[in-house]
Amino acid sequence: MKSLNPFEQQILEAFLKGNQPELAVLRKQIAKLEVRNRTHTGVGCFVDFQLPATVARVTPAEMAFGDVNLEVEGITAPVTTLLYIIGGAIHFLEIAADEGEWPKEPVITRLNYLKSVKLDDGFDLVPSDERDPVAVTHALAGRQGQKK
Is 58 exposed, middle or buried (0-12, 13-18, 19+ CB in 10 A)? Predict the structure, then answer.
């Protein structure tokens, strides 16, 4: 097993920022987290994590976060970030650029959040230094419609 690298650490800390008790449980998991596998996809990466069975889990057990806005050196297109909580544990991180070649050693140039802004014909996601409480509440509610 491998340790988290600084790139992964920064992204996880951003996803788990907040005063909610569920986020506090997940932040404690970071110290015990091991990287099971890193996959470079060409446009991003997948990181699979493993957590010892003795580490406390969170409820709801299935969550997905996607509100971290990431800018990476050498990538001009938007970068999508997703964090999956499965079985109450940090399980999987997905990062993908909308276009361009993903660097082997990515360097974060900006890290903030995406906030939903209502428009006349729908909504848009805009970068924000403040985390959108609606996005956090939605993620912490768990993944709706999952088979039990």
Answer: buried
Question: In Å, what is the CA distance from 17 to each residue of 29, 73, 110, 133, 144?
Answer: 13, 23, 16, 11, 22
Q: Return d(Cα 67, Cα 7) in angstroms, integer.
A: 17
Taking the whole predicted model, whether its pTM rises above 0.85 is answered as yes
pLDDT in tens, the chain (148 residues): 899 999 999 999 999 999 999 999 999 999 999 999 999 999 999 999 999 999 999 999 999 999 999 999 999 999 999 999 999 999 999 999 999 899 999 999 999 999 988 889 988 889 999 999 989 999 999 976 444 4
